[in-house]
Design goal:
alpha+beta, 9 strands, OB fold (Dihydrolipoamide Acetyltransferase, E2P), Double Stranded RNA Binding Domain
Length: 177
């Protein structure tokens, strides 16, 4: 990931650069290879009503650009907030991409129904059991229009079956109506 840091009406401090590097590395670990170019601009906003600083991130990703602006009284916490927001936007971008791919693949995926046997929101996964006793792993990324912390053991679900590395798993999961 190429990184550019610039200051507007402010001199960039070494501690700010170090914090940006730490946040960039964290972003790279969570979203490897997704961001091609990242531009960070820190601007003094003392002339504005809010005062303080504005941190602007411009991230170039495949066929898109994401811009995040955050204002705050201190630079370091504002950098963290801006990178956190960028991380959330990248996660959403990846989720939408997966849904698009799943939508195209869904023709070849068989659907089944079952109940939630176990759910572990802290670890982001759970298991579904069908009426014939087969168990299927699912990850929170496979949930459609549903957050994992809203699922309970015993909930009835419909899901797509796909062959995973460790056996059959759920490629998508929806609550049954």
């Amino acid at each position: 990931m190429e990184l550019q840091i610039e200051g507007r009406h402010v001199e960039i401090r070494k501690s700010w650069q170090d914090k940006i590097e730490v946040e960039k590395d964290r972003l790279s670990r969570h979203h490897p290879g997704l961001v091609h170019n990242l531009r960070v601009a820190i601007e003094s906003t003392a002339a504005h009503k809010e005062g303080g600083f504005e941190v602007r991130l411009v991230a170039t990703v495949p066929s898109d650009t994401i811009i995040v602006k955050r204002k705050g009284e201190a630079v370091k916490p504002t950098i963290v907030k801006a990178f956190d927001n960028l991380g959330l936007q990248l996660k959403e971008l990846q989720r939408k991409k997966r849904q698009t791919i799943k939508g195209h693949e869904s023709n070849g995926v068989s659907a089944a129904s079952g109940t939630i046997k176990t759910v572990s929101p802290a670890e982001s996964f759970g298991f579904i059991v069908t009426s014939d006793g087969r168990e299927f792993y699912f990850h929170e990324n496979s949930l459609k229009d549903l957050a994992i912390d809203k699922l309970n053991e015993g909930d009835c679900v419909t899901f797509g079956i796909t062959e995973g590395e460790k056996g059959p798993s759920a490629s998508w999961v929806k609550l049954s109506k």
